[in-house]
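Collaborator request, handled under Task 6.
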Amino acid sequence: MRIKYILLLLTSVAVFSCCEKEVIEETSTRTVLVYMVASNLDTYLKDNIEEMIKSATDRNLKGGNLIVFYSDYNSMENTISGELYQIKEGKGGVVTKHFLRDYNGQSAVDPAFVRKLADEVFAEFPADSYGMIFSSHATAWFPSDYKNMLRWFGEENGKYIEIDDLASALKGLPLEFIAFDACSMGAVECAYELRDCANYFISSTSEIMGIGFPLKEMLPWLFTSVPDYRNIVRSFHDFFLNYKNPYGSLSVIKTEGLDELASISREILSTKGMDGMYGLNTNNYQLLSNISGNPKLYDFADIMLALASTEDQKNRLSRALENTVIAKSVTDEIYCSSGGSSEVTSYCGLTIYPLRQNFPTVNDWYHTNLSWAKYVYP
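Structure tokens returned to the collaborator:
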């Protein structure tokens, strides 16, 4: 589904030229770009925008810049409409959308455009730090051409963005966080692919209900001077505990810890390898994502601890997880579009794909395209 995050404070810097002409440059602590690709989620995404408007007061944004890009494909007319606007409080304390410009005809799932738009927005709204929130369909790292199913992030007239291409587009941007209000992006493979793109990675390990993130409740915590990740997760959890479909998971990954996590995983798999994965009876481990009968994703700790050969490996893996997953929550059950709800008895905040012999095409793509697979399988 989707997600949004923002924060900032206003600072004013006085600069004097040699002609003694004073120039005032206003810089906020954080600019956040919310990147929405509607597909068949248009009603939900528009509701999300209304929720942001309800919460985006000066008091909650603390002077911050909340910039939204909304793109929608019209199948009847075979056209793409896109617009960029700022949500902010205006006269009389009324929060509204302020139109900036349109991008009609521009594909929102073109990685080059993702980068171009981010560069434009961050130049136009300079800040001390930046964040991006992606809202659309997603199915973790799976390749988009696998059985013609949705495989990764974003959907526009049968076109998608592969996770490795998205990582290439975002690399080098000064991002404090990347957040996905989208299904199943809380995979270790996704986080590792994006580890050099941002300091934090916020995502769900399972499918997200159509309503998406409870932005009215989450928004103020996204605008604190430092994002309050624990309260971001708590507000998400509290909302879905009382929602009519009480299913949801959310975790915050500190990307700095992923190299250590990959290192101990590589050590474990250097002994067990692909054969070890193939030999696991996945019925014994925590299922967290099962979309349309494709490869299932399981709790990372459940799988890797089962493969560890020594207590020392288990202890180091657990410590690495503690240093990487800094906040997490999950409801008693998670929703699976294939198979219905699934009870949750263990949850570390990340999923992993345990290689299955009946998915050779996926396995080949996995090893060829994903940085995680290339590193952890020596």
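The cover message to the collaborator said: "The chain has two domains: 22-258, 259-323+337-376. The radius of gyration is 21 Å. Please let us know whether this matches your experimental observations."
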